């Protein structure tokens, strides 16, 4: 990714602004649909009906039963928000406790953890706001892009 960034940073500002797909991938990684297509193309069963790709985290030495219960509550809250026509983005994901100290957690598609974001080059002391500002710079309307990114984060 660093090499891609360096190569892309040599382009003119106009070309950079037009290439929003590059900046989306640079900021947040490969899109899920792209990853699914890439892996499906090389899988011997990727073209079969019903084939899908999901991301999971396999945990050990961690009791996920409480997290699974809380995620069920979040699902109920989401239903209540929908019934009240509240524009809140809630995405409950699946958690399967497979034992007292083991489990599987579904990954949220097209998302990057805050921890992963903090490990990216250039994150530094400017934090999340600085990251969002850097990514918004390459939008046709940077102020609106930053406002929308902040809204999406807190919503």
TrEMBL record:
InterPro entries: Kinase-like_dom_sf (IPR011009), PI3/4_kinase (IPR015433), PI3/4_kinase_cat_dom (IPR000403), PI3/4_kinase_CS (IPR018936). GO terms for cellular component: cytoplasm; membrane. Pfam families: PI3_PI4_kinase. Signal peptide: none annotated. The keyword Ligase does not apply. GO terms for biological process: phosphatidylinositol phosphate biosynthetic process; phosphatidylinositol-mediated signaling. Residues 30-155 form the PI3K/PI4K catalytic domain. GO terms for molecular function: 1-phosphatidylinositol 4-kinase activity. Keywords: Kinase, Transferase. This is PI3K/PI4K catalytic domain-containing protein. It comes from Cyclophora tenuis.
């Amino acid at each position: 990714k660093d090499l891609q960034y360096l190569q892309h940073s040599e382009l003119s500002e106009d070309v950079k602004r037009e290439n929003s797909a590059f900046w989306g991938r640079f900021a947040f990684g490969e899109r899920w649909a792209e990853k699914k297509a890439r892996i499906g193309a090389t899988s011997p069963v990727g073209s079969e009906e019903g084939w899908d790709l999901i991301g999971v985290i396999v945990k050990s030495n961690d009791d996920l039963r409480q997290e699974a219960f809380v995620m069920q509550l979040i699902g109920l809250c989401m239903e209540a928000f929908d019934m009240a026509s509240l524009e809140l983005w809630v995405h409950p994901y699946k958690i399967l406790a497979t034992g007292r100290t083991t489990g599987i957690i579904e990954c949220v598609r097209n998302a990057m953890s805050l921890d992963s974001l903090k490990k990216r080059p250039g994150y530094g002391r400017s934090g999340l706001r600085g990251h969002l500002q850097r990514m918004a710079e390459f939008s046709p309307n940077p102020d609106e892009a930053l406002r929308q990114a902040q809204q999406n984060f807190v919503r």
